[in-house]
Amino acid sequence: MGTKKENLFEMGASLSDGWSSDNKHKASASSIIKLQNQHQLHVRFEKRKGKPVTLVGLFFYGERDLKELHKKVKKSLACGGAVEKDDEKGGFYLIFQGDHKDKIRPHFEKLGWKFK
C-alpha cells in the first residue's frame, strides 16, 4: 500500500525563504556611517617595519569620502600614506608616513573633525 508518511517533528523554520546556516552574509559593522561631528578621533604614532607612521582614526565614514579627505591632508602635509580597514571594529584608519602627531591635528580640526 502506498501510504505517505507525515513528518510529525516540524520545528517551524522554513528553509525555502533563502535562509542558510552559514554566517558569510552577516551584517558588518563597517556599514555604520557616522556624521563628521560624531567622530572622536585619536592620533597615534607607531613604527611599522622600522618606519615611523602616524595613525588617525577610527573613522566610520564612507570609503570614497574618506579617501578624498586622506588625499587632501596628505597633500597639505607633503607625505604619503594609506587607508586601512579595521575588520574588528568595522572602521577605517588613515595612515600617514612620518611623525606628524603635532601637525596633523590642526588640519583635521580646520576641516571640522573632533578629537578626544
Shape: elongated
Overall radius of gyration = 23 Å
Number of helices: 2
Share of helical residues? 10-25%
β-strand number: 4
Runs in which pLDDT lies below 50 for 5 or more consecutive residues are 25-30
β content, as a range?
25-35%
- Distance linking N and C termini: 78 Å
The major pleated sheet works out as: 4 strands, antiparallel
Please trace the helix and strand order, writing H or E for each element: EEHEEH
Mean model confidence by pLDDT:
81
The secondary structure category is: alpha+beta
Order of strands, widest sheet: 1-2-4-3
Explain what the structure shows:
- Helix content is 22%, strand content 25%.
- The chain has helices at residues 63-77, 101-110; strands at 42-48, 51-59, 81-86, 91-97.
Features:
116 residues, alpha+beta, 2 helices, elongated
What is the topological layout?
Layout: E1 42-48, E2 51-59, H1 63-77, E3 81-86, E4 91-97, H2 101-110
Antiparallel strand pairs: 1-2, 2-4, 3-4
Q: In a nutshell, what does this entry contain?
A:
With 116 residues, the protein is of the alpha+beta class.
